[in-house]
Prior knowledge:
By secondary structure, the chain is α/β, with parallel strands linked by helices. Helix content is 24%, strand content 28%. The chain has helices spanning 45-52, 122-144, 162-173, 188-194, 227-235, 259-263, 280-288, 313-317, and strands at residues 3-11, 17-25, 34-43, 63-64, 68-76, 86-90, 105-108, 113-115, 154-157, 178-182, 198-201, 218-223, 237-245, 267-270, 301-305, 324-328. Strands 3, 5, 6, 7, 8, 15 and 16 form a seven-stranded mixed β-sheet that branches. Strands 11-10-9-12-13-14 form a six-stranded parallel β-sheet, sandwiched between helices. α2 (122-144) crosses α3.
Amino acid sequence: xxxxxxxxxxxxxxxxxCHRLTTMSAAQLDAGEVTLRVHYSSIxxxxxxxxxxxxxxxxxxxxxxxxxxAGEVVASQDxxxxxxxxxxxxxxxxxxxxxxxxxxxxxxxxxxxxPLPAGLSLFDSMALGTAGFTAALAIMRMEDNGLTPDKGxxxxxxxxxxxxxxxxxxxARLGYEVVALTSKATEEAKLMALGxxxxxxxxxxxxxxxxxxEAGQWAGAVDNVxxxxxxxxxxxxxxxxxxxxxxxxASFKLETTVFPFILRGVSLLGVDSGYMSFPTRQRVWxxxxxxxxxxxxxxxxxxxxLAELPSAFDDFIQGRAKGRTVVRVI
Length: 330
């Protein structure tokens, strides 16, 4: 394949990011040791921000979008990979400053590539994608910090988002009591179906009345929201509780006190899925193919063709998207 279809993100006359489907040549691909025919990609909130210019995500123009890709190796300068191998590549600079997964052909550095684990299909790997990788990494970091199901309930904020829903499913499969925190009362039944034992509404929290330390409720927390919600979480953690900080959908600012840390031994763990290297990256994918594989992955996943991609981003920007969206590239 010399020419291929791709969704290219460029700058318009006003300097704002815009996107279009186009045909490119293999000579236009970025440098890397592994070239792959992309079968599937996915849509993450970050992808929508990048393609629409709502967020200043793209660090180089033009750039093929898509921070996730899964496909078949067609050429490799690295002995670990050979033509025909099924592989995954996510995060790092993909779709941001290195041509990404919204293309029929991609070339990436070998250190970004992970062999597809036994037990996962290429489609399922993109149903998981960066969202699944992030949720799994958060859980594994909390486990490494001592979290076990017998310690008490784990709360997941931003529960209806891609990461939140997958985290609920994974935690429930591991035997945790999971509480889903959401602003969407209409989604209670779906969250319970994923494995949540209880659903809390964010509207039930009066942030003006949150004290530096409240009665300990949570042994663990997966936080996709940040801001006041993260402050509330920290104040409500049990002794030696663990919070995995994943996102900042509400705010990147955090106003809190040191009391939960020095009086209860609470741990606040930062989760960076973008640049997590080996062997942890492989370990996460291996867990996603086994005990961390969500039980309801198929039910929360839809697929669209590459040609449908330009019209799909607005649902993510407006908060209407639910679950996971896989992009069928070829």
